[in-house]
Amino acid sequence: MKSLILRTVAPLLIALMLMFSIFVLLRGHNEPGGGFIGGLIAVAALAIHGIANGVETVRRAIVFDPLAIAGAGLLMATLAGLISLWMQVPFMTGIWIEPSLLGQKVPLSSVMLFDTGVYLVVVGALTGVVLALEERGED
Amino acid sequence: MEPIFAILVGLFFAVAVYLLLSKFIIRVLLGVAILGNAVNLLIFASGRILRDVPPVIGASLDMSVGPTANPLPQALILTAIVISFSFFSFLLVLSWRAYRVLETDNTDEMRVAEPEGDAPPPLRY
Amino acid sequence: MDGTALTCLTLFLPFLGALLAPWLTRRMGHNAAWVLALVPAAIFLHFIGFSAEVADGGIVTGGYRWVPSLDVGFYWLIDGLSLTFALLISGIGTLIVLYAGGYLKGHKQQGRFLSFLLMFMGAMLGLVISDSFLMLFVYWELTSITSFLLIGFDHTRQAARRAALQALVVTGGGGLFLLAGLLLIWNITGTTQFSTLFAMAPQLKESPLYLAALLLVLGGAFTKSAQFPFHIWLPNAMEAPTPVSAYLHSATMVKAGVYLLMRLNPAMGGTPEWQTILPVVGGTTLLIGALLAVRQTDLKLMLAYTTMASLGLLVLLTGFGSPHAIEAAVLYLVAHALFKGALFMIAGIIDHETGTRDIRKLGGLRRAMPITFAAAIAAALSMAGLPPFLGFLAKEEIYYALGRFDAWSVVFAAIAILGNALMFAVAFAIALKPFLGAKVETPKPAHEGPLLLWIGPAVLSLKGLAMAALAGLTHHLVSTPMASAIAGEPRLVEISLVPHLGVPLGLSVVTVVLGVLIYRNLDRLRALLAGVLADIGWGPDRGFDQAMRGLVGFSFRLTQRLQTGRFDDYMTVTFIALAVVLFATPFVFGEMPRPPVFPKDVPWHELAIMAIAAVGLVTVVLAKDRLTAIVSLGIQGFAVAVIFLLYGAPDLSFTQFMIETLVVVILALVMTRLKVYKTDHRPFRQTLPDATIAAACGLGLCLLLLTVTQSPFDTTLSDFFNLHSQAIAHGANVVNVIIVDFRGTDTLGEIAVVMIAALAILSLVRLRAGSMTTRMADNDPDAGEGSA
């Protein structure tokens, strides 16, 4: 698409959307949000990016192949489940630790890791599909 | 509220089925998309409807106070939405491929797998 | 390693050998047989170790639990019966593996053949050693499958393929009868093991289901043991290479049916039904088999039909059930395994070294093949029931059992004499005709076979001699324990080579005289039988062809009716079925919903958004062209998202918004490239039925939802999640906690599905259009026929 307005606004819009998607992912455990929704927002951002600036630009911007991202996410989610096995509790039991960082307690958990895995699978898989379809549109 | 939802769900299903009965792949695909929404609404309403209170526990509380919307169907539907989208995309790309090869979206003309007037199987051993 | 584990390992050893066989054969050629023969030899030695204990009346059991909740186990039972079988299987198996090494020397697929052979050996061994019903059934079917592979080994010939399929259909089908019978026995007695079944015999025999159970079990036994009219597969199985005929179709597999009858004799035998059905079927099979054997000129076919006759004799004796009959069955079974295995191998040697098996084209081979000739004479003497061979002991014992003066015994004694006399004649036809007389020119210049070939028949023939000479030891180690196991009570076998004057000896003499007469008139009898059979013109073998053709034709027509190949037919049937289920179920169970009470105070914006959804839906249906339809699809999707938001589901709402956007985007991306301009409007004659079905489905689901929401709501699960979300899982958003924590494993599965869908989509997108058309051409079902 050759719209000048879109191409001008797109970078800003995309940056905002990606930030928002991560925000939605992180707050998901306590307020509406989570890996699925955050991932979908990121996919939408990348899809817009693709339409505005071409698929090649997007591919360069995300560095990794979308499917590799999805695969890493799936691996991450699986590992998050396996942590609990190592702690002698059943598969997929949530494990929480609260290390202090600059005097501030930061709750970390395997559940967080799992949700991030979900996020990456959604981003990777759906971006891969959308980009592949957009690519076909260009030729 | 449930009776109104029942009627709406019935309408969703009727439209989805009508589209699925079409001979044309694109209509069928639209039917599949609507069928997904119909099923999600069915599950949603089966878990009972409550206006406006999301199942989020208030800050510094250990459990929700007062009635909230049923979280279980929501969790089911949330994943269902994403899965049915993946499935829909697959069907879409599949029919697009079929169109590229067979140059039609009329299912009556898509007879590669089950050709018309198939010869009887051989009776030799 | 303890004994249980060692026995278990022994049971799996043949399969291990089967894995190694192709590799070994590639490295060592036909000499791999020497190595592979160690497998059955080791098994033989292992089982010999039990013989002292079993001879003293002991029973060895062992095994492992398999599915405890269903009372299914992997248990074995080693008593006189199973031990004798195990020794026959492994002992003859050793010789057969060696023989196969020589017989298929240089064959491209020799490794595969030896592999199949060892697999069969493992299956057969497991069959006779099983204590559990289910284990027996699994091994039973496994012998059918391995036998299928072996018969069809030469798969480029249609006759071999037909024979393999026929054997599989007949014996595998019989196996299903057996399964049903065993399940019925389980149902009646509540036990799944033979060792505990024997104590339940009275309960089983008095059950009203006894006859049904018996008939089902017999269905399995008679098909496997080639009883008339299920015998057809056995002569056809001679399409297999000769080692297979010698091993499966004389010494071992066909005996599985007889084994089963013997195994069940203590539990089911002795009833009037048992003592009528078995002798009648066995006697019929004996006579028909012996007569058909005389009619043949092919060495292997002659042997195949005498095998059928011998199996009939064994069934007859088992059915008689008297002490002498059981002892006779035991001796005859062992003797038959030895002499028939030897004779098949001899027929194979003759075929291998001269190029023909037709008895009319053979003669004067005694100088060229002296060892084979000697082995043939020894085996034939045993088959004819002449001293000093084991066959003689068996025949004396048979006449002890049948030589009584009630009408029933006299009839079967006459049948046995006639059958034995015919087999006597066939035995000498095989052992003398090819070797004596003037030398006949054969397709290949005749000479003695190599060591690997003649060692098998030589050992088996000598064994028949040794077992008779050392009758006391034979009875102590083999006959007595086996007869006791079959009878279910201690028995003592005492017969020896020293003849006693009496009825049995008299009957033996009659048999020999009759046999010599038949032998001298063999050619005339053969011509006579050929004429009679030609006049009948139909047999169960042709019936099998007709049945198979009928089956294929029927299933073809049925498939054409059910699978029209038209997408909308399938869809119509599916949704009619759905509508029927939706209406019929509540109607049958009286669960129609009450008239709904509509709420009065619904805010207008909620109704408005539902109306928008409805409008969007209707627009999708009515849209003339596809692009309008796509846009309208977005309307209903966003309306659903708003509905989710209004009713306390913000997570769903956001997800739905994003997904609907993506749906419209990718639909637009793809649709703009489908250049479909033609209108796709449905004709009216199609619209009306489609709309009716759709309306019925919609109404049905509407009523279903009404019924569901009118019934009391069980909040256990929702309460659980609300209560524990914060306390256990430290999360305030209950929906998210369910997804990533409580039901995390489900979610893991779901993201895996998303991943797989993406992989599938990307491969479809990247596929070149050209490559797909070639793939379809490859898919032509007839394309492969030419190369076969």
TrEMBL record, chain A:
Domain of life: Bacteria
Keywords in alphabetical order: Cell membrane, Membrane, Transmembrane, Transmembrane helix
Keyword Ligase: no
Transmembrane regions: 12-29, 35-55, 67-89, 109-133
Cellular compartments annotated: Cell membrane
Record-annotated Na+/H+ antiporter MnhB subunit-related protein domain positions: 5-127
Membrane topology: Multi-pass membrane protein
Cross-referenced InterPro entries: CPA3_antiporter_subunitB, MnhB
GO cellular component: plasma membrane
Family affiliation: Belongs to the CPA3 antiporters (TC 2.A.63) subunit B family.
PANTHER family on file: NA(+)/H(+) ANTIPORTER SUBUNIT B, NA(+)_H(+) ANTIPORTER SUBUNIT B
Alphabetical list of NCBIfam families matching this protein: PRK12509.1 (NF009163), PRK12573.1 (NF009223)
Name the record gives this protein: Cation:proton antiporter
Species annotation: Pararhizobium antarcticum
From TrEMBL, chain B:
Keyword Cell membrane: yes
InterPro entries registered for this protein in UniProt: CPA3_antiporter_subunitC (IPR050601), NUOK/Mnh_C1-like (IPR039428)
Subcellular location: Cell membrane
GO CC terms: plasma membrane
Coiled-coil segments: none
Keywords: Cell membrane, Membrane, Transmembrane, Transmembrane helix
Membrane topology label: Multi-pass membrane protein
Family under the similarity heading: Belongs to the CPA3 antiporters (TC 2.A.63) subunit C family.
Protein name: Cation:proton antiporter
Source species: Pararhizobium antarcticum
Species lineage: Bacteria, Pseudomonadati, Pseudomonadota, Alphaproteobacteria, Hyphomicrobiales
Automatic annotation (TrEMBL), chain C:
TM segment ranges: 6-25, 32-52, 72-101, 113-130, 165-189, 209-234, 274-294, 301-322, 328-350, 371-390, 410-431, 451-477, 497-519, 570-590, 602-623, 630-648, 654-672, 693-713, 751-769
Record's subcellular location: Cell membrane; Membrane
GO biological process: monoatomic ion transport
Chief location bin: membrane
Residue intervals of the NADH-Ubiquinone oxidoreductase (complex I) chain 5 N-terminal domain: 69-113
Keyword terms, alphabetized: Antiport, Cell membrane, Ion transport, Membrane, Transmembrane, Transmembrane helix, Transport
Residue ranges of domain MrpA C-terminal/MbhD in the record: 612-675
InterPro entries referenced in this protein's UniProt entry, alphabetically: CPA3_Na-H_Antiporter_A (IPR050616), MrpA_C/MbhD (IPR025383), MrpA_C/MbhE (IPR046806), ND/Mrp_TM (IPR001750), Proton_antipo_N (IPR001516)
Bilayer disposition of the protein: Multi-pass membrane protein
Name listed for the protein in its UniProt record: Cation:proton antiporter
Source organism (scientific name): Pararhizobium antarcticum
